[in-house]
């Protein structure tokens, strides 16, 4: 399936289980695959037939920089729901949220949650 990719969107948010995360905040990275046919916009060269990258970024930003939640899974689910509400042409999406340097014991480069959702689930 065709897709638009929004890679490495960077945000600062206050999400996490630990009080320090909610107080101090931290960096997050989001990758989004927006799956739908690019044939019509490819032929028409008309933005009205596609999904505007900037608009999709702003939607993700609102979630990531908005109300704090505990889990990356909740952020990903909210983003996917908002994408489906906003774009009727969207057939499926994959959302990956990465937390660099998580405040948990051990040595990690990052932790992440990834979901794949289809419109008719």
From TrEMBL:
CDD domains listed in its UniProt record: DHNA_DHNTPE
Reaction(s) the record says it catalyses: 7,8-dihydroneopterin = 6-hydroxymethyl-7,8-dihydropterin + glycolaldehyde
SMART domains: FolB (SM00905)
Keyword Lyase belongs to the record: yes
Alphabetical UniProt keywords: Folate biosynthesis, Lyase
Matching InterPro entries: Dihydroneopterin_aldolase, FolB_dom, GTP-CH-I_C/QueF
Domain of life: Bacteria
Pathway of action: Cofactor biosynthesis; tetrahydrofolate biosynthesis; 2-amino-4-hydroxy-6-hydroxymethyl-7,8-dihydropteridine diphosphate from 7,8-dihydroneopterin triphosphate: step 3/4
EC number annotated for this UniProt entry: 4.1.2.25
Domain Dihydroneopterin aldolase/epimerase intervals: 4-117
Gene Ontology terms, MF aspect: dihydroneopterin aldolase activity
Transmembrane segments: none
Keyword Hydrolase: no
Function recorded in the entry: Catalyzes the conversion of 7,8-dihydroneopterin to 6-hydroxymethyl-7,8-dihydropterin.
Similarity section: Belongs to the DHNA family.
Protein name from the UniProt record: 7,8-dihydroneopterin aldolase
